[in-house]
Amino acid sequence: MQPLTLGLVIVILLPTIFPFLLLALLLGMERVERPLQDETVAQQLERFLDDARPEEIETYVAEGLGPALDRYWRRRRVYRAAHR
Fold it and tell me: Can you tell me whether residue 56 is helix, strand or coil?
């Protein structure tokens, strides 16, 4: 009897592992998408993307929506306070 080669092992395991990897990816995408389905988050994101400065967009890309929105709203509060 011939020993199993690495290629044969991969051919056997790939169809077995692939559905689980796909399921894990889908669950991860659902977790990312869930907060964006909230109406207020979508509106805040739209307003943020319309009015954000380049450094706020960089914060969004690097750190995520939460810190970027904090920075954006902080800037808006300072702007409103200065123009009252």
Answer: helix
| Three-state DSSP class for residue 4 | coil
Tell me the CA end-to-end span of the chain in Å, nearest whole number.
Answer: 86
pTM above 0.85? no
- Predicted confidence (pLDDT) at residue 79 exceeds the cutoff of 60: yes
CA distance 27 to 47: 28
Q: What pLDDT digit, counting tens, does each position of 6-58 carry?
A: 888 888 888 899 999 999 999 999 888 877 676 677 787 788 888 888 888 88
